[in-house]
Structure formats: structure tokens, C-alpha cells
Amino acid sequence: MSRAEPAQRSTGTREVILDAAERLFAERGFAATSVRDIVGEADTSAPSLYHFFGSKENLVVELITDRHTAYCDDLEADLALAKTSFEVCQRFVKFVLTNMTKRPTTAKFLLGIMFGPRQNIPGDIVGESLARSQEIIQVRLRAVTEGPSESRIVFARMMLLGMVTPAILLFLTSGVQSFSPKLPGCVAHRVVDMLTDAHPICAWPSVEPLS
Q1: Could you tell me which of 61, 73, 181 has the C-alpha nearest to residue 132?
Q2: Which of 108, 112, 184, 193 could be 116's S-S partner, Cβ–Cβ 3.0 to 4.6 Å?
Q3: Comparing C-alpha atoms, which of 75, 103, 101, 65 is closest to residue 160?
Q4: Per residue in 10-30, pLDDT tens?
Q5: pTM
């Protein structure tokens, strides 16, 4: 049996550390997970972690970037198949629910960071992650929808995210992974109504003070 080349061994160790960190961050959160925990889970050493990432903070930034890039690439490819605003909304909800079922560890890690406490995670990387996934939805809604103003598109996109949030919170707090197959369609109908009804919309994300 031939020995692995040094570059292959290094790549393998790096990926093992990322996978171990993802599992622990998903289970315990970033703040409650130590470098010792990660290297123990990865069956490696602290110097190896520092060699590849420099710090736990750098590791989580790289992990977020890696996992969320893959998530967004898949989301963009999925929504590109939608031909109507209803299909965009329905596909988005299905995408979120399917990811929680098929990739629970990655979903819990990413969604926990997006919807849970920041836990000293660098705010700029979290903001960039949220911005890209939201932009994908908004761009696709704009591409398949004629008539509504950009502000109404933005409002509908935020309402779409708001309507899927309860399912995400159930997944994060109770481990629920089974949802009604009617949910994507029900949410999509509601959001599409917001694109065409005569009801007023509010500015987003700025909020006017209540009088």
C-alpha cells in the first residue's frame, strides 16, 4: 500500500478538522466549543489546527464561507429553474426544509449562526452570508415578476424569510425535521399575494418610529 503524498495528507487533515468543528459548533455552539474539543474530535493536535487556520475564529470564518458558498450555489441553481414568483417561493421553502432533513449537521451549523446568538463570531462574515442568500431570492423574484416595484419585491422576500423562520426554529430548538408537504405551497401563495395586492408595505430594513 502506497503512502499518501504530504499534500494529500495535509488536505485530508484540514478537512477532518473542518468536519469535526462543524459537528461541535452545530451541537454546542461556537462559544462553548474549545480548540481542545475540536482537535480531540478530529483526532489531531492543536498545532495542526493553528497551522491550517491560525485560530478558532479563523476556522469558523473559513467554515462559514465554505459551507455557505456551497449552500448558496445550490440554492441559486435550484431557483434558476423557477419560471414564476410562486415557483421561486415554493422552491425556496422546499430547499430550506430539504437541507434540514438531508444535511442536518451543516444546516444546524449555518442556521444556528444566522438565526441564533452571534457568540463572538465576526459580524461581517455573518452579514455577508445573509446578504448573498437573500440576494439570490430577490434577483430571481425580480427576473420572473413583472409589475411590482423593487420595494415590494424586497418586502415579499423578507416576508418569505419570516414565514420559513418558525420551521427553522423548530429544527434548531427541538430537532423537528418533518413538516407538512403543503407548507411550501401555502407560504408561496401568501407571499405571491403580497406582490400583487393593494395593501401598503413598509420600508425595509429601516423602520420608522411608531407615533
Answers
A1: 73
A2: 112
A3: 75
A4: 568 999 999 999 999 999 988
A5: 0.85
